[in-house]
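[agent] plan:
  1. take the single chain provided in the ticket
  2. run structure prediction with default settings
  3. attach structure tokens to the ticket
  4. add a short note for the reviewer (M.T.)
[agent] executing step 1
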Amino acid sequence: MTSTRNTAQRREVIGVLSGVQGFVSAQDLHALIVKDGGQISLATVYTQLKKLTEGGEVDVVMTDRGEALYRRCVVDVHHHHLACRSCGTAVEVDAPELESWAHDIGEKYGFGDLRHVLELNGICSTCQSN
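[agent] step 2 finished; step 3 output follows
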């Protein structure tokens, strides 16, 4: 595994992303960084988000429109999310039944070292009320 350099851009992305509640798009994150006085290109934000996602430091979910939304991981173990398509609010979901099912499917077809992503999205109760 290669080590990741702790560059100024990386620290800037992590710093601003850590202050965001819920999931945020790369474009919105870039706008927040610029608003805070940061000087970073949108392309660099995408690059840093990709590296942080690959390193497990950032969660990513896809909206039903195909847009990637990002959030700083608050849990260090494998987990899933239920995210609001309207406001980006997210909750972590514990799904032991899914983990068991994934393991069983892997065994059935002779696969090991399984990895999976479960993306659940809907409209939260607050957005439904509005």
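[agent] step 4 note for reviewer: The two ends are 47 Å apart (CA to CA).
[agent] ticket updated
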